[in-house]
Amino acid sequence: MSTTEVSPARPAAASGTGPAPARRPRTFAQANRRLKWAMLTPALLFVGLMIVFPLVYTIDLSLTDAFGAVNAGKGYVGLQNFTDALGDTRRFWPAAQRTLVFTLGAVILETVLGLALAMLMRKPFRGMRWVRTVLIIPLLTTPVAIGILWLLILDPTNGIANHLLAGIGLPRQEFLGSVSQSLPTLMLIDVWQWTPMMTLLLLAGLTTLPEEPEEAARVDGANAWQRFRHIVLPMLGPTLATALVLRAVDALKTFDILYATKGAGGGSDFEVETLNVYAYGLTFDYQEYGLAAAVLVLFTLFIIGVVVLLRRRGGRKTA
Amino acid sequence: MSATVSPVPVAAHLRRRTAGSWLRGITIGVVTLVFALPLVWMFAAAFKTNVQVTDPSVGLWFSPTLENFRNIVEAGQILRSMGNSLLVGVVSTVLSAVIAVPAAWAVGRFGMHRTGSLILVARIVPAISLLVPWYYLFAQMGLVGSYTVLILSQMFVSVPLIMWIMISFFAGLPVELEEAARTDGLSAFGAFWRIALPLAAPGTATASLLAFVFSWNNFMFALIFADDRTQTVPVTLFNFISYASTDWGGLMAAATLITVPVVLAAVLGQKYLVAGLTSGATKG
């Protein structure tokens, strides 16, 4: 019964589009346009509601003196919050500087180490699967757990790190316990967590490169370093640029490990307070919503600036 | 072809390669150990007594105890938090996939790269600059502390992530199959539903798994939007530090409980997860 119902329906549907072949591309195009938007609208609405609206709201908030309870009134104060933030040499500028230092230091180390490791792993070897599994674990692990783990490892008196340093005759370090060592230590933790990501990205890029140019250079007598420097590196340029942008954006926004290891304000002396930690504190500890919004607008512009700069640089190199 | 090459240089070439590959193998082994050891240390510490945890001379050889796990489970919060994380992760991931996969197909198939670059914006904007207005809004609606807000805020990460991965996945599928299906009378939507979507199943699974892991790990949103009842695992772990900072064994046991699902996912889905994480990045 059901088969007799279905089988006539099929030729009917086919003949519905069949008799007018000249009209078909147009209806297809129309159907496509309608379908395209039908498929996109939910995502666009979501992005609009959850991202564009909040951004506009943040800009609006940054022009007000909103403070305290969320339903307290607020008045417009013009650019006062921006001049306050930009004139603040005690918290804002040091935080901006730390953000930049942390990002530059961590990302440069991760790129160099990640590239070296990717080159080493380029040719397949036995156990490749296990090495890749080990590499993927740090970047999937909960950052708060990583922070706590390193607090134990780097504990000044009871940690294994100082035990190992003593074993090779080096003096005891304070690591996260000291104001001056905290930021460099957190950079190294970031390097431990994210170098594998760099390696995996660059390894994926390396496997897509054609082998002929290198073979040709080898035949012409170029040594391994020359082949790397003049053949592999330029060809890897686009992947390297994209990996750099992705990692830099995430490093600029680092929050979890900083907050989990050093707490609000980035420690007693604000020693690891980046713009992200600073904005968080302004909002949820001090409830300075207006000022926080201004800092966030500046922070977002800062990140967009870095991305544009990196992309233009990368683009020029690869063009 | 290889017969024209004289046998002597080939042998020398091979010998050099074996020596080189030994050195390479050892280097890769040592580097891998450096990345693995901190987490091995965490797993080991979870099975140590508190005296052993804070004695660095106790290495990896000791008689393991389950005491730490019993203590944190009996303290109550951890299992409930894991349940909360599971709930928020699964619901936000499923909803995000439903929204993001068709959108990714539309962007990938119809070449709407300007719309697609909206996703890049979502990737760049610091989450906290959305958190402030959301908090402002959700607090006025009295929704802070609810699962709804946790799920919605998590979707902000998941929707762009899944779209990011799926656009390059769809772009990698041969368009001919869909075209053939349409010549055979299938509508454009039919081509998506019956041809592209089944082919994209592995990609969707990878993207969803990554979205779930990111949700499981998310700290900042949960710190603000969760209350005692809806708390997720990173927040529970964070709260542990403040009131049980001397209980290193308990802390490591809790961290281990949270990390085990992730490690399992990495071991079982290594190939797919790496493909997911690196997709998009290598194609520009």
UniProtKB/TrEMBL annotation, chain A:
InterPro entries: MetI-like, MetI-like_sf, Sugar_ABC_transporter. Residues 1-25 are annotated as: Disordered. Pfam families: BPD_transp_1 (PF00528). Residues 96-310 form the ABC transmembrane type-1 domain. SUPFAM superfamilies: MalF N-terminal region-like, MetI-like. It is a multi-pass membrane protein. The chain crosses the membrane at residues 37-57, 100-121, 133-153, 191-210, 231-249, 289-310. Keywords: Membrane, Transmembrane, Transmembrane helix, Transport. CDD domains: TM_PBP2. Residues 7-21 have a biased composition (Low complexity). It is found in: Cell membrane; Membrane. Belongs to the binding-protein-dependent transport system permease family. PANTHER family: GLUCOSE IMPORT SYSTEM PERMEASE PROTEIN GLCT, TREHALOSE TRANSPORT SYSTEM PERMEASE PROTEIN SUGA. This is Sugar ABC transporter permease.
UniProtKB/TrEMBL annotation, chain B:
It is found in: Cell membrane. It comes from the Bacteria. It is a multi-pass membrane protein. SUPFAM superfamilies: MetI-like (SSF161098). InterPro entries: BP-dep_ABC_trans_perm, MetI-like, MetI-like_sf. Keywords: Cell membrane, Membrane, Transmembrane, Transmembrane helix, Transport. Its main location: membrane. The chain crosses the membrane at residues 22-47, 86-106, 118-137, 149-171, 192-216, 248-268. Residues 82-269 form the ABC transmembrane type-1 domain. Belongs to the binding-protein-dependent transport system permease family. This is Carbohydrate ABC transporter permease.
